[in-house]
Amino acid sequence: MKIQISVDTGEGAKVVTTNLFNVVTWERKFKRRAGDLASGIGAEDLAFLAYEASKTAGIPVPVVFDDYVKKIVSLDVLAGDDANPSQVAPGAEA
User: Whose CA is closest to 35, among 87, 83, 88, 86?
Assistant: First the structure.
């Protein structure tokens, strides 16, 4: 599951992209399933995914998640995978 997120922590906006590891980390922390994201994503969920994706991308972040959240100036979803990636696209072979 890839979600492209623009996050500005006061040092200019950076675009990060989540990967499966980031989503699994989110599932473990919040005891929810990735499918729950389709019904709506909260600010804390989005901030956590941006935090984990930033770490994966090698962008320095505070050790404590709450300290990262305190620094966020803006946070926006730019793009994401289809809600149901297991469906075959029209015209494609199964």
Answer: 83
Contact 47, 69 (CB under 8 A): yes
3-state secondary structure of 76: strand
Count of structural domains, the chain: 1
Q: Which domain holds residue 68?
A: 3-80
- What angle separates helix 20-30 from helix 43-56, to the nearest 10 degrees? 140
In a domain, residue 92? The reply is no
Q: What tens digit of pLDDT does each residue of 5-41 get?
A: 999 999 999 999 999 999 999 999 999 998 887 888 8
pTM of the model: 0.81
Give the span between the Cα atoms of 90 and 37, in whole angstroms.
Answer: 24
Does 57 reside within a domain? Answer: yes
